[in-house]
Write a structure and sequence with these properties.
Blueprint (H helix, E strand, L loop, with lengths): L1 H6 L5 H25 L7 H25 L8 H15 L4 H21 L5 H20 L10 H8 L1 E2 L2 E2 H19 L1 H11 L1 H6 L4 H27 L11 H10 L11 H20 L4 H19 L8
Helix pairs in contact: 2-13, 3-8, 3-11, 3-12, 3-13, 4-5, 4-6, 4-11, 5-6, 5-11, 7-11, 8-9, 9-11, 12-13
């Protein structure tokens, strides 16, 4: 196996390794359910579609997060960007619910981009501050209580209904994936993202407007978070405080596990997709096994560290 991986093209190695981990996770989960329940729910199409439906929210967040990580930055405002978009969409309701949710993401992304690109504040610090501000604004908006607003029929349809037997949320995730993949591989903006992530000063000297690239990446991340928030509110039939918190670290993990270099400049979107599927199935298997929270965290962290050790931090991956 090690010899096989050593002969593989560097850009394919993370995807293949993550896929192998998925097979191992499915094998372990299947063996456990057969031994304890005598059934194999993990391999049923309906169960897998259900897992992909819930994984679509994480997948959309991870798609936006990848854009920022490719620049060597991080977006820690995702949890409350997601929550704020969901709360404002449900509060407005009607035909304006979706546009309002997306506008929230655009404004937050613009603010993050300006803070990082023009004020030169480290992204980790600035986005964490923006996240705190959003949390305060939403607590003030709700008075500290659970929102009483409900998701619109369109929000519920996009998140919870099915089309041709497939959850609509998966179609939304697919649409976002196509946009991100095309943006990274077929547009000047995508090439500018990779160039800026590799070396911002060199990209600037070559004529790339690096500040606008940074703003665009942060706006993409925030819009993806807001889309996920609107969908999650539709899936839950309402918005609630803290709904975005469980998606921050898994989104970052999915991007890194998929082979995107945490320091920027290298990564493929297909790797992020595989990383999302890996995390969703891992959480599913641990839930089936009724693993205590402490055990889940240990296994979750061990898988991440193990994969990073296998293909290393220095793998050079291109689009």
């Amino acid at each position: 196996m090690i010899s096989f991986l050593s002969r593989m093209k560097p850009e394919n190695k993370p995807v293949v390794i993550a896929s192998l981990f998925i097979v191992v996770i499915l094998a372990i989960g299947t063996g456990y359910t057969i031994a304890t329940q005598g059934t194999v729910p993990l391999l049923s199409p309906n169960y897998l579609l259900q897992q992909l439906q819930t994984g679509a929210f994480l997948g959309i967040v991870a798609a936006g997060m990848m854009m920022v990580i490719l620049l060597g930055h991080i977006d820690l405002s995702v949890p409350w960007t997601l929550t704020a978009a969901a709360m404002m969409a449900t509060a407005v309701g009607g035909d304006m619910a979706l546009p309002v949710g997306i506008v929230v993401g655009l404004l937050v992304g613009l603010l993050n981009g300006i803070g990082v690109a023009y004020l030169r504040i480290p992204s980790m610090i600035f986005t964490l501050g923006v996240d705190s501000v959003l949390r305060g604004l939403m607590v003030a908006h709700t008075g500290g209580f659970a929102p009483q607003d409900r998701a619109t029929p369109l929000m519920r349809y996009l998140a919870a209904d099915r089309l041709l037997g497939i959850p609509v949320a998966i179609y939304v995730w697919l649409a976002v994936s196509v946009v991100i993949a095309v943006m990274l591989s077929r547009t000047a903006f995508g090439r500018s993202v990779y160039a800026t992530g590799n070396r911002e000063a060199a990209a600037y000297l070559s004529g790339i407007r690096t500040r606008l690239v940074i703003i665009g990446a942060f706006m993409t991340s925030a819009v993806c978070a807001s889309i996920a928030g609107v969908l999650l509110a539709g899936y839950s039939a309402k918005a609630y405080q803290g709904m975005g918190q469980p998606y921050l670290l898994p989104a970052i993990a999915a991007v890194v596990l998929g082979g995107t270099r945490i320091l920027g400049g290298q990564g493929r979107y297909i790797g992020t997709l595989v990383g999302v599927v890996l995390i969703v199935l891992l959480n599913s298997v641990l839930s089936i096994m009724q693993m205590p929270e402490a055990g889940r965290q240990i296994i979750y962290g061990a898988v991440i560290v193990g994969m990073l050790l296998v293909y290393g931090r220095g793998v050079k991956v291109t689009s």
